[in-house]
Amino acid sequence: MQVKSYILEVTKALFFSFGIQNISMDDIANKCGISKNTIYKHYKNKSDLLNETIKLQVEELIANLKQASANSNNALEELHSFFKYVNGVSLIIAPIYGHEIKKYYPNKYLELFRYKDEIIIPFILRNIEKGIIQGLYKNEINTKEICSSFDNISKIIFTSDFSFDAQTSQNAICFLNSLFMYRVVSIKGLEVLNKLQDN
Questions:
Q1: Which residues are CB-contacts of 21 (< 8 A; sequence separation ≥ 6)?
Q2: Distance between CA 28 and CA 131 in Å, rounded?
């Protein structure tokens, strides 16, 4: 792995685990086993690193959505695969990360959720349409309403001012994702979902 990419991966892990305010350039340099001067050859400052870690998150998200679509036999498998990815990511992101972005980096907060609105919500809308056509989802779903509710609740979990620990936050996200799937599935889809949940 190139030095620039390595620095970014280490920084992302540190931000996710300890928040942004608690991490200094010295901390990043020490964790990478390099000098600060080496970091500054590739990144201007901590804000620049935060920008790049957010871009990296978005790239990973897009790659996962493509993989979920390519490797799934139907809409429910696709959605289940995506939520499995989200659940895994939520386990490594401490609640302080989302809270600090909202409090100290409002522009980054808006940017992060703009990506969500432009990428995740359209994916779910398309998935629901596909699932209805395949008979796996209920016909009478109010698609925009359920997506809006899902979006708002997930934002609350991600940026809550309450002092949730990482496990509580992850449990809440897993519960929300599971609740969403059980809310949209038809009787036919329920059989498929139960099998997916058992695996």
A1: 100, 104
A2: 44
Q: Which residues, 6+ apart, have CB-to-CB distance to 61 below 8 Å? A: 115, 119, 120
For the chain, the straight-line distance linking the first and the last C-alpha, in angstroms and rounded, comes to: 33
Q: The whole model's pTM is what?
A: 0.86
E-strand stretches of 93-162? none
Question: Residue 149: its pLDDT value, please?
Answer: 86
Q: How many angstroms separate the CA atoms of 132 and 147, rounded?
A: 15
Burial 24-58 (b: 16+ CB within 10 A, else e): eeeebbeebebeeeebeebbeebeebbbbbbeebb
Q: Is the pLDDT of residue 116 over 80?
A: no
